[in-house]
UniProtKB/TrEMBL annotation:
Organism expressing this protein natively: Acidisoma cellulosilyticum
UniProt name for this protein: Glycosyltransferase family 4 protein
Keywords from the UniProt entry: Glycosyltransferase, Transferase
PANTHER family (alphabetical): COLANIC ACID BIOSYNTHESIS GLYCOSYLTRANSFERASE WCAL-RELATED, GLYCOSYLTRANSFERASE
Record-level Gene Ontology MF annotations: glycosyltransferase activity
Domain Glycosyltransferase subfamily 4-like N-terminal as annotated: residue spans: 42-162
Length: 374
């Protein structure tokens, strides 16, 4: 990259994505991680994050707010117009749109479409502008690249599309900066804690966790269970009918409900806990929470649905979130078996090495170079 003049990259966040330590979701955390300056990584790209105006602290990175308050259009059109105004001032060489196919299509009408990449972190078949195969195929032909965080999502994008008519999406998995994580405790020194960390919603199997722990904990003297998270990724997340119903069940089971915690606190908890459980019901597009558990050395029990199968198979115990007794039995079995926990911990640490930040940056830089020279 030494002879390659620095190029400007605009990374466009979804319109409701926070971009700060107390507000960021998975997409923003990943982009902050990738964009953070690193003396050991001279990429040749100057990255600016573009997103909705933020409340509170933001990450110490170049950020431009797309202020849509002046427009009377519908919300999608307002955000697209606000982003367009920012991009016309910024004049980026590349535009990376995250999780918004319709926004990528709108921007392709104003900027060079072959210099636009659409990055998908969720199933596109439920997204505006990509629900139908014909729309996805048209975007594949128009944009410079479609990039998915898992093979599962790439296959979802190609559903109903004749493979010879378009280029298949690229797969660039999510990543973690392993060097920034707390040092994981050895298995023998870990707290006898079973942790759920994630959104407290039915899709994530929060109720399955509570009910499985209610069965398992009476069989596990000295063990405790905690839940970290809320309905949304913010400290003021509202109570929902689901959390209102779940709270008394969790308290009756002796589960500590810690609510929302920032990312650093979650990582610290995972680095100490003996077991992490991710009983997701929905097909996870990737499973960043699973990667975080693996990278912190917690023995992982997880459903293998969607992208989780690619990430966690062979490094976790597979569970069915709708079989509560089966989840409870798996918890009891792993908790009572220190050697198995140690083996799972090491398997998780080994698996996480595949998703370390330097490799993710290398692959992203290669894609950006390709888009600039194609």
């Amino acid at each position: 990259m030494a002879d390659f003049p620095e190029k400007r990259v605009a990374v466009i966040l979804p319109p409701r994505e926070g971009f700060g330590p107390q507000s960021a979701g998975a997409v923003a955390l990943l982009q902050a991680r990738l964009a953070k300056p690193d003396a050991a990584h001279a990429s040749g790209f100057a990255v600016t994050i573009v997103g909705a105006p933020q409340k509170g602290e933001i990450f110490p990175l170049p950020f431009l707010p797309a202020d849509e308050s002046w427009s009377l259009w519908g919300s999608d059109a307002r955000y697209a117009a606000a982003v367009t105004r920012v991009l016309r001032r910024l004049k980026p060489d590349l535009i990376e749109v995250h999780n918004r196919p319709d926004l990528a299509r709108r921007l392709a009408a104003s900027f060079a479409p072959r210099r636009i990449a659409l990055f998908l972190h969720n199933d596109p078949r439920s997204m505006r502008g990509a629900k139908h195969a014909a729309a996805r195929a048209a975007l594949s032909r128009k944009l410079g690249a479609v990039v998915c965080v898992s093979r599962f999502l790439a296959d979802a994008w190609m559903e109903g599309i004749a493979i010879k008519t378009v280029l298949a999406p690229r797969v660039l998995p999510n990543s973690l900066d392993l060097s920034a994580l707390p040092s994981p405790l050895p298995p023998a020194e870990r707290d006898k804690v079973i942790v759920f960390a994630g959104r407290v919603v039915a899709d994530k199997g929060a109720d399955s966790f509570v009910r499985a722990c209610a069965q398992a904990l009476p069989q596990l003297p000295g063990w405790q269970a905690i839940m970290i998270g809320a309905d949304r990724f913010r400290a003021d997340s509202p109570e929902t009918p689901f959390t209102e119903r779940l709270r008394p069940e969790a308290e009756a089971a002796g589960i500590a409900l810690l609510g929302y915690r920032d990312h650093a606190t979650v990582m610290a908890a995972l680095s100490r806990a003996a077991i992490a459980v991710l009983p997701s019901r929905w097909p996870e597009p990737f499973g960043l929470a699973a990667l975080e558990a693996l990278a912190n050395g917690a023995a992982l029990l997880a459903s293998h649905r969607g992208g989780l199968a690619e990430l966690a198979a062979g490094a976790s115990v597979a569970i069915d979130p709708d079989d509560v007794s089966g989840v409870a039995a798996a918890l009891v079995s792993v908790a009572r078996d220190p050697e198995r926990r140690a083996a799972l911990s090491q398997a998780g640490l080994d698996r996480a090495l595949r998703y370390d930040l330097p490799e993710a940056r290398r692959r992203l830089d290669a894609l950006r170079m390709e888009l600039l020279t194609s």
